[in-house]
Design a protein that fits this description.
Blueprint lengths: L9 E3 L6 E3 L1 E4 L4 E6 L2 E5 L1 H14 L3 E3 L8 H10 L7 E6 L14 H15 L4 E6 L8 H13 L3 E7 L3 H13 L5 E7 L11 H8 L2 E5 L33 H18 L3 H10 L4 E6 L4 H8 L8 H11 L16 H8 L1
Parallel strand pairs: 3-6, 3-12, 6-7, 7-8, 8-9, 9-10, 10-11, 11-12
Antiparallel strand pairs: 1-2, 4-5
Helix pairs in contact: 1-2, 1-9, 2-3, 3-4, 4-5, 7-8, 7-10
């Protein structure tokens, strides 16, 4: 089997010396049973072992999971699949979604974060978590309580680095401010949704992470398979598609069809697939540390790995950029007015 050499092979994660592969492996599909209502996973340990081995063979060193994925099965299976290679890799997991029946089995309280980290350690079969991430904002818990819990986990040696996922920039900034003022461990990573059909990240999160030197890890670079090329006007809802019963993340379907047509055109020029081109486009972004790829079939993983070999031309990048450019939202569309014309002309000269 051909060994791929990852394009732009490695990057530093945020303001750390931690070197991560530009493609990461996401284990969300591991396990057998309901992932979320409408989506059922069906990957056993044998297939999980094969996928992890393949990812390791290509040079991937970042593996992402969460305590809520398939009732904890994802963490268990990932830990077993990594086996003796555990200390060669970076394990990232997350906390925040419901993991049990008790009222306290959810959220970002001190109690739940500490308990969840300890449970994740057991499921993963390891004595430390490399990157521990807040999976979703908690509308109830004071942020001071949450950041204190994360700092304690680091000081106890159970966690090495911390990050957040799916947070608005203002809330992440507030938390970072507390971390700095209290000399707590700071966020180094933001795991966020980003794709050609979902570029909202560019409004607030990208300027924030660039200013604070936080690395972005991308989830769902294919908009949950929409950009794979199998969703078309002729076949809007393929029978075996994940999006058939779970329209997530939301996309503008008509715009999606237009994007897929361009992806197919570019893919032909590279003897590649639309999915590979969509991922390759994300890899051109300087603010991205790593793109998380996952699969529920081995051939899907093989195809996604091929994105590392695609080098898009400036013209192809511009074509995709223009087609998918997000519309400015207020107060964004007022920002350019801050440039005084006379001052700008003087500086430009």
């Amino acid at each position: 089997m051909k060994l791929l050499h990852l394009l732009f092979r490695n990057a530093l994660l945020g303001h750390t010396g931690l070197v991560v592969s530009r493609l990461a492996f996401g284990a969300m599909t591991f396990g057998q049973g309901e992932l979320v209502p409408g989506v059922t996973n069906n990957i056993d340990q044998t297939v999980a072992d094969q996928m992890v081995k393949r990812a390791l063979d290509t040079g991937i060193n970042l593996f992402d999971t969460a305590d809520a994925y398939t009732g904890g099965q994802s963490e268990i299976m990932l830990g077993k699949a990594l086996g003796g290679r555990r200390h060669d890799v970076i394990i990232a997991t997350k906390v925040g979604f419901r993991t049990g029946n008790a009222l306290t089995d959810t959220g970002l309280s001190y109690r739940h974060i500490i308990a969840s980290a300890e449970a994740s350690l057991k499921r993963l079969g390891t004595d430390y978590i490399d990157l521990y991430q807040l999976h979703i904002p908690d509308p109830l818990t004071p942020i001071k309580e949450t950041v204190r819990a994360l700092d304690d986990l680091v000081r106890q040696g159970k966690v090495r680095y911390i990050g957040f996922s799916n947070f608005p920039a203002w809330k992440a900034a507030l938390m970072l401010g507390i971390q700095k003022s209290k000399d707590y461990t700071r966020f180094v990573a933001a795991q966020m949704y980003y794709s050609l059909l979902g570029r909202d990240l560019e409004h607030e999160i990208v300027p924030f992470v660039e200013d604070t030197d936080i690395g972005i890890l991308v989830w769902s670079p294919l908009a949950s398979g929409f950009l794979s090329g199998k969703y078309t006007r002729e076949a809007p809802v393929p029978e075996d598609s994940r999006r058939k019963n779970f329209q997530f993340p939301p996309v503008d379907v008509e715009k999606g069809y237009a994007v897929v047509e361009v992806l197919q055109e570019i893919a032909q020029n590279h003897h590649a697939s639309p999915a590979q081109v969509a991922i390759a486009w994300i890899l051109t972004k300087p603010f991205i540390s790593s793109v998380i790829i996952g699969a529920n079939k081995m051939h899907h993983l093989e195809d996604n790995l091929g994105a590392s070999e695609i080098k898009l031309s400036a013209h192809e990048i511009e074509k995709l950029e223009t087609l998918t450019q997000p519309q400015p939202i207020y107060p964004g569309w007022m920002q350019s007015m801050g440039w005084d014309g006379k001052v700008k002309a003087a500086l430009d000269s």
